[in-house]
Amino acid sequence: MLVAHVRLNRIPHWHLRYDVRGASTFVAGVHKHHRSTTTHSTTAALRKTSTMPIPPALLTPDLLAPADGAYPQPRRGTLTGQSPPKVPTPTSVVEAAKRLAAWTAVDRHILPEHKVIGIGSGSTVPYVVERIVAQGKEVNKDRVFIPTGFQSKELIVKSQLLLGDVDQYPEIDVTIDGADEVDHDLNCIKGGGGCHLREKVLAEAADTFILVADYRKNSTVLGTTFPQGIPIEVVPFAYTKILQNLHLIGSPNASLRMAKSKAGPVVSDNGNFIIDAPFPEEIMKDPYTLLTRIKMLTGIVEVGLFCHMAKAAYFGNQDGSVTIKWHDGRIEKVAGNESAVED
Ligand SMILES: O=C(CO)[C@H](O)[C@H](O)COP(=O)(O)O
């Protein structure tokens, strides 16, 4: 293998490693002592040793190189850096309820022996991560955290927890995630944030899958408190045909989810479109049958109906208690951690 190093003028102490087999990777924080090497001589050396073309942006004359320290060092999620960002104290009853649910679920299900942890998406999940961080650096230093999308990836990195992916860790100890609505059998609607494909993969990969939500999500029949419909991720080119088919199987108002601050549709973390398909109550009463029906349509990537997956769902209540619904039908009500609603 033939390898050459070129110092990046614009990014001090970072080097681009050229590998003549075709790969190029950034290697951080090494070869600082090469700072005096000129770009021209390095380029000449590179030309002798590599057949790879050199991107013009890397060939800026050395004169333009900034002084040491002019650029910040790259951000990294480590357990040794500064303190993680503080999650703002909840300012409403609903936020306090989310935090109560999240903290109670973490206290009961994220135990020291759990080393691979799936982190869901949505506005309740930051409280989950907050509580995990509070368990301390010692317990977290040999844990790896798997995100369900862009938001949870950022959350993990900013909280200085170790980031992994489900292709490295297809077996997860515990995944904790939010939900849009949960019924009496712990079936739920997910995908309000468009992350349900990865969320379902991480739910399925987990030994234990736990839902956390505020009291508004605690329901009997799906579609009651989340009427906007079942989120369905679809391959973009098929969306019109899928909409027609959804109309035919009982969702005449199924529609493409449109972006709020961009012209056009919402595009998922996987580059797909999202359809929201509301169905009448009679159909929603049997979510598993509906899930299999939708999943059979060609072009569907994943359906935001999670059936028979969760072990328990934690709902924070307005009175500071937490309702826990278990997969075997038990319902518990426990006092929430008082500090979850205080500063
Ligand atoms: O499924 C999701 C994202 O795709 C979320 O978990 C769900 O929308 C709940 O979010 P929040 O905690 O903000 O109510």
From TrEMBL:
Protein name: Ribose-5-phosphate isomerase
GO BP annotations, alphabetical order: D-ribose metabolic process; pentose-phosphate shunt, non-oxidative branch
Species name: Ganoderma sinense ZZ0214-1
Superkingdom of the source species: Eukaryota
Enzyme Commission numbers on file: 5.3.1.6
GO cellular component: cytoplasm
An example molecular function term from Gene Ontology annotations: ribose-5-phosphate isomerase activity
Family label: Belongs to the ribose 5-phosphate isomerase family.
Region (Disordered): 65-90
Matches recorded under InterPro entries: NagB/RpiA_transferase-like, Ribose5P_isomerase_type_A
Catalytic activity: aldehydo-D-ribose 5-phosphate = D-ribulose 5-phosphate
Record-linked Pfam families: Rib_5-P_isom_A (PF06026)
Keywords, alphabetical: Isomerase
Top-level enzyme category: isomerase
Biological or metabolic pathway of the protein: Carbohydrate degradation; pentose phosphate pathway; D-ribose 5-phosphate from D-ribulose 5-phosphate (non-oxidative stage): step 1/1
Entry annotated with the keyword Cytoplasm: no
Protein's UniProt keywords contain Cell cycle: no
